[in-house]
Amino acid sequence: MDSLPLGEEVIQKACSIAMEAHNYPEAPWRVENSPSSSDVFFTFPGSWSVADWFTRLPFGEIKVDPSKLLSPKGKDKVATSLRSIGRDELATVNEGFLKRLEMILANPSLQSEVEKAIADKKQIVFTGHSSAGAVAILATVWFLENYIKPEITRMSPLCVTFGSPLVADFIFNHALRRENWSHCFIHFVMRYDIVPRILLAPLSSMERELEQILYLLNPKPLFPRQGSTRVASQFYQTVMRNASALTSHAACQLMGNANPILETVASFIELSPYRPCGTFVFCTGNGKLVVVRNADAVLQLLFYSTQLCSENELEEVAERSLNSHFDYQSELRDRLKMQNAVHLDHLDGLPLSSNGAAAENIATSMALNELGLSTRARLCLRAAGEQEKQKLSNQQRMDRKKADIEAGLAMLEDYKSKCAVCQVGYYDAFRSSKDEDDFKANVKRLELTGIWDEIVEMLNRYELPEGFESRKEWVELSTRYRRIVEPLDVANYYRHAKNEDTGPYMDKGRPRRYKYTQRWREHALRMPVGSSAESSFWAEVEELQLHRRTRPGAFEEIRETILNLERKLKEWIDGEHISRDVFLEGSSFTKLWKSLPQQHKSVSCLQGQINS
Amino acid sequence: MSEMLATFLASTPLLEEAWRLCSIADTTFPGAYLVQQIGSVAYVAFSGRQADPGSDQSRENPARLDAEDGGLFAPLYREAEKPIRVHSGMLRLFLSMYQSLQIQFASLIGKVKSVVITGHSIGGTTASLSALWLLCYLQSMSSPITSVLCITFGSPLLGNEALHRSILRERWGGNFCHVVSKHDIMPRLLFADVVPNHISKIHALISFSHHCMAAPHLVVASLSSQLVDDVEDIFHCVLKDLELLAQAEEPSENVFWPFGSYVFCCQEGAICLDYAASVMKMMYLMLATGSPSCSIEDHLKYGDYVGKVSKHFLRARNFQEEDLPDSSYEAGVALALQSTELVIKEPVEDLCLSVQNSNLTKEVAIRAKDCLQMARDGNKPTLIAANLATKLSKIVPFRIEIEWYKFYCDEADDQMGYYDSFKLKARWKRESRINMNRYKLAVFWNSVIDMLENKKLPHDFHRRGKWVNASQFYKLLVEPLDIADYYRAGKHRERGHYITHGRERRYEFFDKWWRDRGIPEEENKRSKFANFTQDSCFWAKVEEAREWLDNVRSESDVKKRDLLWRKIDLFEQYARKLIENKEISEDVLAKNSSFSRWMEDWKELKS
User: Which segments constitute the EDS1 EP domain (chain A) (predicted)?
Assistant: First the structure.
């Protein structure tokens, strides 16, 4: 299949293995590893009990526990990738499906099989149908977080699901895209299959029906099915109503509707946190495939492709919404059709009506018609495309400001070295601000503040492309910025005694532009949380000085902090993250250090540095 | 866009739930209301059958809210520039229920997280007033009730444009959702300039609709012939006045005005608008395509409409015309237009009639399109505010340079402080630069005030922390220089003293913003002198005190002398208090500052 990272054979194989797994509900996982094949398939059986889908109200969702399964093992205190970095918001996943994976991994057998496949340099494929697809998604993330490392393997796994329910929120998708993991996930969804839509509705709205529906969907029911039509159409309407509320809310946001009633009303109802992630392949029902990568567009499609064309279709569509959950194998049988899949890449230029399409758009137009998309639906897809474009153009705009930032930093670095020539650290020079140079440095500081605050604002509103926070050139530029400019912010803070009104800089006064960019570096280098705090070194010095002034006898209270700071400072000096001007005679740090008790100084790790 | 929002509202269970309770309240709780808790949401539904509130000629003279509410709505009019007026009958109706409501809401607090207040017809205005009161009330306490939503069905208008503005200023516009069916006369009634002989007709109309609400199963066709004529009169009267209003620019104080969001429901769809001018235009256009009889029927058919729009989500609805515009924006407007059912439906059989008709409908369609586009652009203030923020960051360096000048003067050998340095050395190089910066900052802030007065900025602009703080810092730092400039140029001799005759208007705005920011003045003990003197007019007061001191020496009249002496004494007390609280900045106490020199002279005189 064009531009999908896997061939038709793999898809067909994965599908048959995934379906077969339902026949062995007692096996928590299965592996297909034939010596003649370069692929290894891992799969799981589905679950048909409400308790496995919804562990809690309203949507069975839970924040990722940063210390657990989906975090990197080994190195201490390295944060999980499943979050937004600057804002530091953790992803939310379905607790029931996560618990299933935890249960499977409690036994080391899957891990050893996975490691064997790595050793054999085979392509690993996690696959699953229905709720097993959700488990496969989480297993893939577990693999990515723990095994994709230079010292283990560089070979990306694949995750292929069929009719899988959604499993996580938009931060999960955000993180996957940022880490460049998104392309590993391929989800097949039949136009009318209700299962991928179920988690768009809160449990409270369908508690009674869900049990019956899951029973009807179980490929190995204990009792014969009957009377499904009424339940099915009730269930279909419930899910669609909730999906409509969710997607129209999302569409209003995409279209920039600023009417405040949108959020007031949203606070009265339960909107699902779940969002699509990875690549979706919609199957129209007669063999045609439509490939979509934009998660906002996929969400809209999940709703609009299942709408009725006329009201009297209700019962028929409702039945299909259950039956087509088992149509994947037959739908994916025809290779030729798979090769002619339509890619919806240029969403902002989609044809709006079902008849008037330009010649080069014929295939797209037909695909949209076969998914039954109304003009409204197409407008929503366009809005999703326009937002993606807007994010890119925001990034380009910030990229153009890099030159301004570089020039500003060069000017401040110059200021710093000028100060050093006069045997004053630039921190202390700026703190007393006596000369015109200090004033000019302050203007520059504020100009740079403007640019970085704009970036922070856009990150807060998720208006930049997902990968922005892990782009190498920006991580490096921000580190340079933080190291040279944050000391000026600290100096300014204590010079104006803002700590008396607001509290210590680190607790209350530290701007987000520094917190965010520190996290960027820590994430990029997989450093422990909080270990790249060199730029806020002076804030610690100020607080310790204050302590020495107000409680000069109480050295014991700060001994640990001092020892810690000395140790870190030594590392930062050695790594050239902080320059040696901190040791100049008359620098605030030198003064602090000299005020410490003799018996501490004589054994301090900095002893040689300052006396010389 | 307006249409997508309506789709969202209709997909939630809120509209159906609210209507269900309204219809129960209409049939079984006349003159009262009904409370029901569903999950963590409390619903309060007011019956549309209430004691007739229109019995006086109150349309001519709506009541001033602050005169008649006993302070219940104080947060609304505290900052209003023009008096808020509401329909006095409706206010009385609310006040008559207020005591029981207060007890009712008190018992809900703690039990529920959010409240939906709803009502049909006149019950809708009572619901709006109750919601407004609840919002005012909750503002003064930290309450576990986090959201309040008012949903009305076919509610008459409540108050004037000042009410609308106050609601926007308090950011409560998003708490009101008025559902209006296509031709319903009731929500449009108070747009009409009703002459006294209409009043009895309106009474007849209201009692007829009460009659129908009490027995919703009866057929509406039983209109008496007298009533038919009455309705026809009212219909044309409303239509005429609404057309005038929809084109008017400046509303007068006594005119009723919409507030919050309006959901217009038709058979084929719904749209949601919150831009007042668009709401009124849409009210007019939809009524213009209706007839007197359907304008009554539609007031009683909310059950139908709500049921229909709540089911719209199931079916994919396509655009019915051939020539759909290709731009997303235009296509969005075209779709919304289709939902309003104001587009041309051809063909009409009777040729002669159809020419006339299609001209009319074309006209309506074009105006409806304008109206929808206007609603879209109505959000421009937000954009302007965002651009202004960028401009603000661009002028920061000018302010910083002045700030630095101040500290430079504090350290300088002449020990004059920045006020006196600036006043004395106006033509020196450095001071000219500072003067230029002062000028640029003034231009920027004047443009902000200008935009605000021309209503180009969001209504809550002056509540936004960013702007309140930025203007305050600007004022504290720069106003002393304005004062210095004023007295250096001797303008006080031509025009009088700065505070009463020379102060720029912008500073008075900033004073008000700062005062109204709603943060109680803390008794914060400063450990050192403030960075900026907290009274930005301090130096102007010093200048006046200087004049008194000079005059007191030469004054021969004992009485006048005594008066001056007392004034000087008061100023000294005021200055000492500022110093004691460390609310002045160090430059005031510099050895050679005007203030220090004044103090010396004063001491000398006293001794």
Answer: 411-606
Interchain contact, A442 vs B404, CB within 8 Å: yes
Question: Best mutation site among B3, B8, B179, B407 for testing chain A: the one with the most A CBs within 10 Å?
Answer: B8
Which of B12, B309, B330 to probe by mutation at the A interface, max A CB count within 10 Å? B12
pLDDT of B217 above 70: no
Residues 261-320 of B with CB under 8 A from A: 261, 272, 274, 313-319
Tokens (6 digits) for A257: 């509707």
pLDDT for B158: 93
> Which two tokens mark A378?
């197409």
Burial degree of A449 (CB within 10 A; 0-12, 13-18, 19+): middle
Listing DSSP states for A541-574 in one string gives HHHHHHHHHH-TT-HHHHHHHHHHHHHHHHHHHH
Q: Scanning every residue of chain B, which has its alpha carbon at the shortest distance from the alpha carbon of A442?
A: B400
Q: Residue B88 has which token pair? A: 């006095």
- The beta-carbon neighbor of B177 closest among A261, A263, A447 is A261
Contact between A487 and A535 under an 8 Å Cβ cutoff? The reply is: yes
Q: Is the pLDDT of residue A442 over 70?
A: yes
| Residue showing tokens 């949108």 | A262
pLDDT given for residue B202 in this prediction: 72
Tokens 């999960």 correspond to: A172
On whether any CB of chain A is under 8 Å from the CB of B116, the answer is yes
Confidence of residue B419 (pLDDT cuts 50, 70, 90): very high
B184 is catalytic: yes
Compare CB distances from A264 to B147, B316, B332 and report the shortest one's residue: B147
Contacts of A499 in chain B (CB under 8 A): none
Q: How confident is the model at residue B57 (pLDDT cuts 50, 70, 90)?
A: very low
| Among A242, A374, A446, beta carbon nearest to B317 | A374
Length of chain B in terms of residues written: 607
Give A-chain residues touching B175 at CB under 8 angstroms.
261, 264
What pLDDT digit, counting tens, does each position of A459-517 carry? Answer: 988 999 999 999 999 999 999 999 999 999 999 999 888 887 778 999 988 999 999 99
- Of all residues in chain A, the one with the smallest CA distance to B174 is A261
Q: Please tell me the distance from the alpha carbon of residue B143 to that of residue B141, in angstroms, as a whole number.
A: 6
Question: According to the model, what pLDDT value does residue B180 have?
Answer: 96
- Closest-approach residue (CA) in chain A for B386: A454
Could you tell me what percent of chain B has a pLDDT over 90?
42
Model pLDDT, residue A612? 46
For the beta carbon of residue B219, count every other beta carbon within 10 angstroms.
Answer: 6
Answer whether A139's CB lies under 8 Å from A41's CB. no
Length of chain A: 612
Strand order in the sheet with A274-275: A61-63, A92-94, A168-169, A274-275
Contacts of B244 (CB under 8 A, 6+ apart): none
Indicate yes or no: CB of A265 within 8 angstroms of CB of B8: yes
As a whole number, the mean pLDDT across chain B is 85
DSSP letters along B319-382, please?
Answer: ---S---SSHHHHHHHHHHHHHT-S-----S-HHHHHHHHHHHHHHHHHHHHHHHHHHHTTHHH
Look-up of token digits 């040696």: A580
Q: Is the pLDDT of residue B348 over 50?
A: no
Interface test with chain B among A200, A255, A268, A272, by most B beta carbons within 10 Å: A268
From chain B, pick out residues whose CB is under 8 angstroms from the CB of A383: 328
Task: Walk across the sheet containing B256-257 and list its strands.
Answer: B63-64, B85-86, B159-160, B256-257
B313 → closest Cβ in A241, A249, A251: A241
Cβ of residue B527 closer than 8 Å to a chain A Cβ: yes
Q: What is the pLDDT of residue B218?
A: 57
Q: Is the ipTM of this complex over 0.85?
A: yes
Residue of B nearest to A254 (CA): B1
